[in-house]
Design a protein that fits this description.
By secondary structure, this protein is α/β, with parallel strands linked by helices. Among the domains are: 63 residues, no CATH class; 50 residues. Strands 3-2-1-7 form a 4-stranded parallel β-sheet, with helices on both faces. The chain has a 3-stranded antiparallel β-sheet with strand order 4-5-6. The chain is globular, with a radius of gyration of 20 Å.
């Protein structure tokens, strides 16, 4: 197989037409629903899915939800409003902060942060995020998370996260995605619509999602596309350039965090080509030569992809019945 830096180039017009046909058939014929509900974040994935849904059902049959909470970047809501206006959809704002406060999302999270940094106090202006090592190609580092806090004076402090504290921060933060899922289904059931997911292949296959949170959808129209291919659709669908140029963020933690530093550890244009090559079982020397990397660097990336997929298989496993073991 020929491998070069253009191998992931697609025909965006044909791909859009195929996805739109799939959406119409699945939503109308399979689910017997009248339209689509999409959560809009101001990012490129949700913008592309919104555009596809508008093509499939028309703007009056698409409900676009903007669901910020107190840690959300205000720019996300502004961009979400821009893209809904661009495609002629009137958005619905659902502020989920009160729901998260009811769940105890913030104090549960902050309790774990203070075990690492006792001085942390969100009320005083401290912010926080968790990150992975960013030197994936150059060192054999595992996916061990660190906690970063930023003081009110702008000082940044970093500490490796003990497992107990990491699990508590993630468990509390995941209330956010699961609350948004519940809100999406409220509006879907209100209108007899289907919930349309916005996860791409990177997120779905490597496990960058919350089980029964942002994975809790009826249709996943772009889950087969690498992130770089989503950008190709975005350009064809005329997603506003400011959204296409914005670095993808998690928008989960109070401190600004890109998806690369939080989870993926590589730029998408590099990761996607390496991942495609691994899936196609291409010779490592060929991949290294084309990408200007050493074989050791390629192998480090492949090992990381395999670890992520293996350790997140649970997230992609559907509920198992009590008789499943007997049948196997």
């Amino acid at each position: 197989m020929k491998f070069d830096i253009e191998v992931l180039t697609i025909d965006p017009a044909a791909e859009c037409e195929r996805i739109v046909d799939m959406l119409r058939h699945t939503v109308r014929q399979v689910f017997r629903r009248f339209g689509a509900v999409v959560g809009i974040s101001g990012g490129v994935d949700s913008s592309v899915v919104l555009a596809l849904c508008v093509r499939a059902f028309g703007p009056l049959r698409v409900t676009a939800l903007i669901m910020p909470e107190k840690d959300s970047d205000p720019e996300s809501e502004a961009l979400a409003r821009m893209v809904t206006a661009h495609y002629g959809v009137e958005p619905i704002l659902e502020v989920i902060t009160p729901v998260l406060e009811g769940f105890g999302c913030y104090p549960r999270r902050d309790e774990a942060i203070r075990r690492v940094f006792p001085e942390y106090d969100a009320a005083l202006g401290y912010t926080a995020k968790i990150v992975l090592p960013q030197n994936l190609l150059d060192e054999d580092t595992l996916n061990v998370f660190s906690l970063i806090i930023i003081t009110p004076k702008g000082e940044e402090k970093t500490q490796r996260l003990p497992a107990r504290d990491y699990f508590q921060i993630v468990a509390a933060s995941n209330f956010k995605q699961r609350t948004r899922m519940a809100m999406l289904y409220y509006h879907a059931e209100l209108n007899n619509y289907a919930v349309i997911g916005t996860a791409n292949k990177n997120e779905h296959d490597q496990g960058f999602f919350v089980k029964f949170g942002d994975s809790g959808v009826d249709v996943k129209p772009i889950a087969h596309l690498f992130k770089t291919q989503v950008y190709q659709l975005a350009e064809y669908l005329e997603v506003p350039e400011v959204i296409r140029q914005r670095p993808p963020t998690s928008d989960t933690y109070s401190a600004h965090s890109t998806q690369e530093e939080f989870f993926f550890r590589l730029p998408f244009e590099t990761m996607d080509l390496l991942w495609f090559a691994q899936e196609q079982d291409l010779p490592i020397q060929q991949v290294a030569d084309v990408m200007g990397l050493s074989e050791q660097q390629v192998q480090r990336a492949w090992d990381d992809f395999s670890r992520k997929k293996r350790t997140t298989d649970y997230l992609r496993t559907p509920p198992i019945g009590s008789n499943s073991h007997a049948k196997s």
